[in-house]
Amino acid sequence: MSKLKLIIQREFIAKVRNKSFIVMTFLSPLIMVGMGALIYFLTQKNEEKVKKIVYVDDSGMFLKEDFKDTKTTHYLDYTAIGIAETKKRVEAGNYYGVLLIPQQDSLELLAKSIEFYSKDSPGMSLMNSLESKIESKIRNEKLNKFGIDIKKIKASRIHTDIKMFNFSGEESSKLINGLKIGVGLIAGYLLMMFVIIYGTSVMRSVIEEKTSRIIEIIVSSVKPFQLMMGKILGNASAGLLQFFIWGIILFVITTVASSMFGVDIVEMQTARVPVDQIDAVKQVTAGDKGAVIIQEILKLPILKIFVLFIFYFLGGFMLYSSLFAAIGAAVDNETDTQQFMLPIMLPLILGVYVGFATVINDPHGSIAVLFSHIPFTSPIVMLMRVPFGVSWYELVISMALLLVTFVLMVWLAAKIYRVGILMYGKKPTYKDLYTWLKYKG
Amino acid sequence: MNNLLEVNNVVKKYRDFTALNNVSLHIPKGSVFGLLGPNGAGKTSLIRIINQITMPDSGSILLDGEALAPKHIAHIGYLPEERGLYKSMKVGEQVLYLAQLKGLSKSEARKRLKYWFEKFDISEWWGKKIEELSKGMAQKVQFIVTVLHQPKLLIFDEPFSGFDPINAQLIAKEILQLRDEGATIIFSTHRMESVEEMCDEIALIDRSNKILDGKLDDIKRNFRTHTFQVGLDTANAKEVKQKLKENFEVFPSNFKLLSDSLTLNVKLTEGNSANDLLSFLTSRGEVQHFVELIPSANEIFIQAVNKNSQKK
User: Fold this and answer.
1) Per-residue confidence at B111, pLDDT binned at 50, 70, 90?
2) Using CB atoms within 10 A of its CB, is residue A125 exposed (0-12), middle (13-18) or buried (19+)?
3) Which of A18, B4, B7, B301 has its CA 20 to 30 A from that of B134?
4) Do B51 and A220 touch (CB under 8 A)?
5) Average pLDDT, chain A
6) A212 contact residues in B (CB cutoff 8 A)
7) Residue bearing the bigger pLDDT, A324 or A278
8) Which residue in the set B55, B56, B73 is minimally distant from A221, CB to CB?
9) Is A3 on the interface with B (CB under 8 A)?
10) Cα–Cα distance list, A125 to A97, A238, B135 (Å)
11) Mutation for A interface: B48, B86, B101, most A CBs within 10 A
């Protein structure tokens, strides 16, 4: 058996047998699903509490129907009681707040002198809804004064819904756009997490060999480069295994959960989708929402996403883990790693933020395209773009750049690694690392 | 080809520090070769080069007449001074893994391991993790790792450090037996008493230079001072001493004899032989003690290193 294969095997087994790997692999999907369910449950609960809001309308302009009760807010008209007494009662009683609408000479003045009192500062959504109620009422009053017929205005309102196609003739909907964003962001984020978790695991394993001093025995049998690559590949295989197990577990859990408990997948999905996507879902006939979702998901290039995820995970992981290995070799213990970790973490985090910020707005915008080609961010940003369809030549360029950079970085890191593993004592500086690069043999 | 390993004019520099300055060594087959030197002299640098962990800047190394190449890794066993094993890996798996890295097949490694584990009476450790073993126990495992693949060349860097006297004795015995079975051994240390016991040849490295090498006996011969420790039972000690001083160099000595004798260290001068001294002594009384003072490896070491530092 070749030495590299032996090393990969040992690293893989050492990683997989580790208790934390087993716990992470089998518990975290459960935790993820549990967290999702919990968040869904909590957001439902959070809004269930009814807010009682009292209003005192001295202007006499507002009617009961202007303040319609909703599921979560009830409006009470205390105009008859008077401002002073109302305030007292609200403060003492079980009310959320009080809205004061004074008598004013002009509508402009009225618009600026309405006040709201409450015990806690109210949420943005509540204030927005109050403001929009008042604005529309006053606007209607003004329209009336100008002699404009409100009924005609209402009748003139129209809703447009542009149907979207790509040139291969597939119809895409806002729903699928939401799904694409979701899938892309999750894939990109997952990749970052994998690179960090498994990269630091490579680093730790290098440090362990250094501190246990077995390193000198190993490098008298194999080349440091072989050892480093064996470590990286062994950890990558453990990472892939974990990823596959997660995939299977998540698939089983969601299937079982949705069929057994009748969990409304549509609602759980849409909770994560931006507001304007919800309309799209609602327009779908209520009967078979689930079927539509599944249809839409199936329209995504799942196989392509999957293959590219594996490629970019391996490429990105090897690129970064060779750097993690070099850091591990340079230091004697984990506390010394921090100053070297920052420059590695930065591009990863940048990738995720740039992805979040640009891909959602325009997956083919220039910044998104740029960052999906820079090898240090491309695995993350490109994965986020892939669900929206990326032309094959962009993919080829991005993948080629990643490969070239990966080879270059492994070569550089191996030089630092080779010298570092036999160095003990003083924590090296960046200058030291630079001189190590120039050491011969 | 009598030398298993030839190191020719090896130079190794780290930036502006020279670790090895034109060092040459010839290590005969089937010998225990002592590689001696103070800390930081360059022993470890040389050992790492022989192990192909690092490369020399210039110079060549021949193993069995061939230029050192990666294929020779399987023929070299190395026990580093700073040693260790994977702490959370089981003893058996770990030794199998390390043996396979040296090129042994798994089944062959398992067979040989059984032999060694039984020999050291440690078979019950197979499933234990290294972290569960004491330091001395781990050292035994480490020794097995070093010799399991039956290398032609064995390099032991301070092999006895960390062993109690009983285990050190056991390991010393094993090393000599390996030599008798045909292995060549490089034995690096600065503990001189073990050098006397084990080494056939030595080389002394001090501050990156080889300052001395050869057969231990020859070196001792070169370092002999022709000084004898004598004990003489005589009635007239003062006069004998006086007479001795006329022909020899005489130094006081304080070793103890059972009888109340005159004890002295006497160094032969030009034109005198040991027999001259002995016949002089027998004519003056009864010789109780007559031994040549042979320099110990320790004395040679200190002398050579001091001389080298005066040169600089």
Assistant:
1) very high
2) exposed
3) A18
4) yes
5) 81
6) 84-87
7) A324
8) B73
9) yes
10) 15, 46, 67
11) B101
Q: Which strand (E) or helix (H) includes residue B12?
A: strand B3-14
Question: Which residue is closest to A215 within chain B, CA to CA?
Answer: B84
Distance of residue B165 Cα from the nearest chain A Cα, in angstroms: 24
Confidence of residue A25 (pLDDT cuts 50, 70, 90): confident
For residue B32, give Cα distances in angstroms to A3, A217, B28, B196, B310: 31, 21, 9, 11, 30
In chain A, domain spans: 49-156, 183-437
Which residues, including other chains, have CB under 8 Å from residue A439's CB and lie 6 or more apart? A415, A418, A419, B14
Whether B3-221 shares its CATH topology with B225-292 is answered: no
B83 CB within 8 Å of a chain A CB: yes
Nearest CA in chain A to B93: A10
Closest CA in chain B for residue A4 = B101
The rounded distance, in Å, linking the Cα atoms of A94 and A46 is 18
Read off the pLDDT of residues B173-197 as tens digits, 9 standing for 90 and up. Answer: 999 999 999 999 999 987 787 888 8
> What is the Cβ-side half-sphere exposure of residue B146, based on CA atoms within 13 angstroms?
28
| pLDDT tens-place string over residues B40-96 | 888 988 999 999 888 898 999 999 889 988 889 889 999 988 888 898 889 999 999
What are A224-235's pLDDT values in tens digits?
A: 889 999 999 999
Domain range list for chain B: 3-221, 225-292
Give A49-156's CATH code, choosing from 3.40.190.10, 3.40.50.620, 3.90.1030.10, 1.10.3210.10. Answer: 3.40.190.10
- With an 8 Å Cβ cutoff, is B97 touching chain A? yes
Interchain proximity B85–A214, CB inside 8 Å: yes
Residue B80: list chain A partners with CB under 8 A: 213, 216-217, 220
In the predicted structure, residue A269 carries a pLDDT above the cut 90: no
Q: What is the ipTM of this complex?
A: 0.81
Distance of CA B214 to the CA centre of its chain: 12
Most confident of A44-48, A234-238, A356-360, B296-300: A234-238
A439 and B82 within 8 Å at the Cβ level: the answer is no
Residue type, A77: D
Query: Does A2 lie at the interface with B, CB-CB under 8 angstroms?
Result: no
Residue B128: DSSP 8-state: S
pLDDT grade, residue A138 (50/70/90)? Answer: confident
**Cα–Cα distance for residue pair B131/A355, rounded to 1 Å:** 45
| Interchain CB contact of B85 with A (< 8 Å) | yes
pLDDT band at A10 (very low <50, low <70, confident <90, very high): very high
Q: Which fold has domain B225-292?
A: Alpha-Beta Plaits (3.30.70)
| Cross-chain residue pair A216–B14, CB shorter than 8 Å | no
Q: Which chain B residues are within 8 Å of A222, Cβ to Cβ?
A: 73, 101
pLDDT at A281: 47
List pLDDT tens digits, range B212-258: 888 888 888 888 888 899 888 888 888 888 888 888 888 888 777 77
Rounded Cα distance between A282 and A289, Å, is 9
Tell me how many residue pairs between chain A and chain B have CB atoms under 8 A apart.
68
Are the C-beta atoms of residues B159 and B171 closer than 8 Å to each other?
Answer: yes
pLDDT of A233 reads 93
**Do the Cβ atoms of B15 and B26 come closer than 8 Å?**
no
- The conformational region for residue A78 under phi > 0 = left, psi -120 to 50 = alpha, else beta, is alpha
Q: Cβ contact (<8 Å) for A422 and B84?
A: no
Residue B159 has pLDDT above 90, yes or no: no
Work out the angle at residue B79's Cα, subtended by the Cα atoms of residues B78 and B85, and round it to the nearest 5 degrees: 115
pLDDT at A243: 84
Give the mutation candidate from B17, B52, B53 for the A interface (greatest A CB count, under 10 A): B53
Domain B3-221 sits in CATH at: 3.40.50.300
